[in-house]
Specification:
The chain is α/β, with parallel strands linked by helices and 314 residues long. It is 46% helix and 21% strand. The chain has helices spanning 6-18, 21-28, 32-46, 62-90, 104-119, 132-141, 205-216, 230-238, 251-259, 292-313, and strands spanning 51-54, 57-60, 94-100, 123-129, 146-150, 162-177, 197-199, 222-225, 244-247, 266-269, 277-285. Strands 3, 4, 5, 6, 9, 10 and 11 form a seven-stranded mixed sheet that branches. It has a two-stranded antiparallel sheet with strand order 1-2. A two-stranded parallel ribbon has the order 7-8. The longest helix has 29 residues, at 62-90. It is globular.
Length: 314
C-alpha cells in the first residue's frame, strides 16, 4: 500500500501555492534543500514524480495535482478533527485571529467583538488589519483563523482550501464637493459623472472597483489624483479637485474625519439607478468553520452584516 506522509503533502501544497522552492522554504521555515529532499522522498513513496523541470524552476506534475485533489479532503478532515478537539478541551474559551481590510474593521469586526465580549467573555479575539488581497495569504499561511476580504479578490467558492461565507453587498456612494452642479441633482446616475476628474488609488482593489463600476456605467474614469486613505480622498474632494466613490461601510470613518475638519465640505450622494456595490466575504480554512470559537465569530459577523443591510435598506 502507498505510504501517505501528511507533512510532505503539506510541503507539496505549499509549493503549489507559493510557486517556487525558495518561497516554500521561507513560508515553512525550512531550507530549500530540505524542501527538495522531502519532495524527492515523497515521489519515492508515491512511486510517481511530483515535480518536473520547467525552465530554471520546477512545477508540479499532473500526478502531483491528482494527489493534492485527494489530499485536500484529508487536510479538511484534519481541520475538523482539530476543531472538535479544541471544542472538547476549551469549551467556551479559545482564541480566534481575524484579518480584515480597513473599512471592515470598524463597520463589522468591532461590533462583532463587542457582542461576543458580552455573550462569550472567555473568547479571545485578535484583530489584524490587512489589505483585502493580503488577508487570504495570511489565512493560507496559518497566521490568522478567519479573513474578511472582497469577493473580487478572494479565491473562488470552488477552492478546496477555504470555506467562504458571504456577508453583505456594500453600496458605493459618490462624494461631491459642496456647491458642485450635480450635488443636488435629482436621480443622479454614475454616468452623469463621466466627464468629471476622479480620485482613487493607483493600484489595488479600490482602483479596480472604481474603474469596474465606471466601466459598467459606460465610461472610463479620468484619474486626476491618486490616494488610498479616506482623509486624503475627502480632502481633495472638498477642495474641488475631483469626485470619488466611497463605500457605505466607511460612513463611521467619514464622520470621524468630518469632526476633525476633513470632509465637512463634501456631499455624499446615493446613486439612484446604477448603484455599484462591493461584496464582502469571510473565509476560513475548510473544516475550521466547525470549531466552536470560529463558528461563534462567523455568526456574530453575519448578525452585524444583516443589521447593517437592514439599516441601509430602510
Amino acid at each position: 500500500m502507498t505510504e501517505w506522509d501528511i507533512k510532505k503533502l503539506q510541503i507539496l501544497r505549499t509549493l503549489r501555492d507559493r510557486g517556487t522552492v525558495t518561497a516554500t522554504a521561507e513560508a515553512l521555515l525550512m531550507t530549500p534543500s530540505a524542501v527538495s529532499q522531502q519532495l524527492t522522498n515523497l515521489s519515492r513513496q508515491l512511486g510517481v514524480p511530483v515535480l518536473e523541470a520547467h525552465g530554471r524552476r520546477v512545477r508540479l506534475t499532473d500526478a502531483a495535482h491528482l494527489v493534492l485533489r485527494h489530499a485536500e479532503a484529508v487536510f479538511a478532515q484534519l481541520e475538523r478533527a482539530e476543531a472538535e478537539l479544541d471544542g472538547y478541551l476549551r469549551g467556551e474559551a479559545g482564541r480566534v485571529r481575524v484579518a480584515a481590510f480597513s473599512t471592515a474593521v470598524p463597520a463589522l469586526v468591532v461590533p462583532a467583538v463587542q457582542a461576543l465580549r458580552s455573550a462569550h467573555p472567555g473568547l479571545d479575539l485578535r484583530v489584524r488589519e490587512a489589505e483585502a488581497a493580503e488577508a487570504y495569504g495570511l489565512l493560507t499561511a496559518g497566521d490568522v483563523d478567519l479573513a474578511l476580504s472582497l469577493a473580487a479578490h478572494a479565491p473562488t467558492a470552488r477552492d478546496p482550501q477555504f470555506t467562504r461565507v458571504p456577508l453583505l453587498a456594500d453600496p458605493l456612494d459618490v462624494a461631491l464637493p459642496v456647491g458642485h452642479p450635480l450635488a443636488d441633482a435629482p436621480g443622479l446616475r454614475l454616468a452623469d459623472l463621466s466627464a468629471e476628474p476622479w480620485i482613487f488609488g493607483g493600484s489595488g482593489p479600490w482602483s479596480e472597483i472604481t474603474t469596474a463600476a465606471c466601466e459598467a456605467a459606460g465610461f472610463v474614469p479620468e484619474q486626476a489624483h491618486s490616494a488610498a486613505g479616506w482623509t486624503a480622498i475627502l480632502a481633495m474632494v472638498e477642495a474641488g479637485m475631483g469626485v470619488a466613490l466611497v463605500p457605505r461601510m466607511a460612513a463611521a470613518e467619514r464622520r470621524t474625519e468630518a469632526s476633525r475638519g476633513a470632509g465637512r465640505g463634501v456631499v455624499m450622494r446615493v446613486l439612484s439607478a446604477d448603484q455599484p456595490r462591493r461584496h464582502v466575504v469571510a473565509a476560513v480554512r475548510r473544516g475550521a468553520e466547525e470549531a466552536p470559537a470560529v463558528a461563534r465569530v462567523l455568526a456574530a459577523l453575519r448578525q452585524v452584516a444583516v443589521q447593517r443591510e437592514t439599516v441601509q435598506q430602510s
